[in-house]
Amino acid sequence: MVLYNDTQTIAAISTAVTESGIGIVRISGEQAIEIADRIYRGKNGKKLADQKTHTIHYGYIADGEDMIDEVLVLIMKGPHSYTGENTVEIDCHGGVFVVRKILETVIKHGARPAEPGEFTKRAFLNGRIDLSQAEAVIDIIQSKNEYALKSSVGQLKGNVKQKIVDIREKILYHTAFIETALDDPEHISVDGYGETLRGVIEPLIKEIQKLIDSSDDGRIIKEGIKTVIVGKPNAGKSSLLNALLGEDRAIVTDIAGTTRDILQENISLQGISLNIMDTAGIRDTADIIEEIGVQKAISHAKEADLIIYVIDSSAPLDQNDYDILKLLKDKKSIILLNKSDLEMQVKKKEIMDAYLGENKEENKFDIPMIEISAKENIGIDILENTLKDMFYHGDISFNSEVYITNVRHKTALQNALQSLNNVIQSIDMQMPEDFYSIDLMDAYETLGSITGETIGEDLVNEIFSKFCMGK
Ligand code: GDP
C-alpha cells in the first residue's frame, strides 16, 4: 500500500493552549531545522544546522528584528525522532499569546500548520510505528486509570502488532504453499494437506478467539465499568455515590425521588474505573418526571456491565424490591444492604428467596451481598475489593497478556475468525485446495488492517483525525 505523504514541513502547538509554565511548538519535516534557524538566535551565535542531533540549545526566537521569546530548542534529526523526520521542538514560555506568536512565525518562515494527529500519522507513514501503535498513542493520552495506561503502553510497545504479525506470517506461509503447489502439481503434492492445515489453523482460531474475548476486559480497562445504581427512593443511592466519590456531588435529601436526572461520574477505585450512572429511584409512581427517570434507570440497567442495588435494610422489603430484583437476572450485580448502622429489618435469606422465586432448584443465587452504611462510610472497602474480584479475578497482569481495547481491532479479528472458520469448513467438506487459500487470504488481509498494512487512505485519515492538535 502506498499512501500519499506530502513532504512539506509541518508545525503545531503541542501543549495545551492555556496559560502554563512552558509551551511547545513542534516542527517536523525535511526543512524543520532550516526553518528554525531562520527565527532562532542562539546565545552562542551558532546555527542549529551545525549542531548535533538530540541536543538542546538556548537562545531567542525572533521575527527579523522583532524579539518574541527566550527559548530552549531541541533538535532531533531524522530518522531518530517521533515522526522519523527532522524535528525541532521550541520550548517557550507558556502564555497563550506567545506560543501562538511563535507558531505564526514558524509558519511565516516556511512551515505549514499541521493537521490533528499529523505528527503521529507521519510516524506511521514513515514506517516507524504501525497503525495499532499509533492508535495506542491516542489511548495513552486518553487513559483514565492505571490499567488503561498500562495496556496502552503495551500496545505502543507493539504487543498487539507482534501478535498480528505472527498470526499473519503463519497464514501467509500456508497460503503460499498451497498456491505454489497448485501451480506446480507435478513436483508438489497437496494430498492430505487439509489435515496439516487444520493443525495450523485450529490453534490460530483459538488464539484469535482469546484476543476477541480479551476485548471485554479491554473495554472495561479503557472505558471503565458501566455501572448503574438502582434502588427505591431514599435507599441511599446518592449517599453511596457520595461515599464513593468522596465529595458531595449528588444531591442527598429526605424527600423521596430527588435524584431525577441521571448523573454520570467516573470513579477510580484501586486502579479500576467505574462509570456510574446514578439514576432516579425505581418505584411505581404517577409523577411524570420521576417516571422518565425510572424508565431511564431501567434502560441503563439493561446496558450496564454492573448493577449496584441499594436496599434500605432498615425497612422491610416490598413489591418494588421484588421488581428490581428481576432486573438483576443475567447481569453482574451487587446487592448492598445499606443503613447497616440502623436496626436491620431485612435478612439476606429473604432477598435470596425473593430472587429465586418459585424455581429454587433451577435458579442459583450468586450475587454478592454486602452490608454497608453509606452515611457512616462502613463497608465501602469491602465493596471495592468485591468489585475488583468480580471484574478482574484478582490482579491484571500486563506482562504476557495482550488486551484488545480498540473496537476496530476487535471487528477485524472477528472477520478474520470467520474466514478461518470457513477454511476449517472447507477442509471438513473436502473442498478443493484453492478454496482454502481464498479464505486464508481474506483472513490475512483483514488482520493486516489492524497493523495498517492493508487499509486505504480514507480510513487512515479518519483514524488520525481523532487525534488532538500537535500530536
Ligand atoms: P436516594 O434517594 O436513594 O438517593 O437516597 P439518599 O442518598 O438521598 O438518602 C436518603 C436518606 O437516607 C438521607 O437522609 C440519607 O442521609 C439517609 N441515609 C443514606 N444512607 C444511610 C445510612 O447508611 N445510614 C443512615 N442511617 N442513613 C442513611
TrEMBL record:
Binding positions (GTP): 234-239, 253-259, 278-281
Top-rank lineage group of the source organism: Bacteria
Cofactor: K(+)
Annotated positions binding (6S)-5-formyl-5,6,7,8-tetrahydrofolate: 26, 89, 128, 471
Cofactor remark: Binds 1 potassium ion per subunit.
Stated role: Exhibits a very high intrinsic GTPase hydrolysis rate. Involved in the addition of a carboxymethylaminomethyl (cmnm) group at the wobble position (U34) of certain tRNAs, forming tRNA-cmnm(5)s(2)U34.
Family statement: Belongs to the TRAFAC class TrmE-Era-EngA-EngB-Septin-like GTPase superfamily. TrmE GTPase family.
Species of provenance: Dorea ammoniilytica
Enzyme class per UniProt: hydrolase
Keyword rRNA-binding: no
CDD domains for this protein: trmE, TrmE_N
Binding site for K(+): 234, 253, 255, 258
HAMAP family linked to this entry: GTPase_MnmE (MF_00379)
InterPro entries the record matches: G_TrmE, GTP-bd, GTP-bd_TrmE_N, GTPase_MnmE, MnmE_dom2, MnmE_helical, P-loop_NTPase, Small_GTP-bd
Principal place of residence: cytoplasm
UniProt xrefs under NCBIfam families: mnmE_trmE_thdF (TIGR00450), PRK05291.1-3 (NF003661), small_GTP (TIGR00231)
Gene it is expressed from: mnmE
Official protein name in the record: tRNA modification GTPase MnmE
Locations listed in the record: Cytoplasm
Signal peptide from the UniProt entry: none
Quaternary assembly: Homodimer. Heterotetramer of two MnmE and two MnmG subunits.
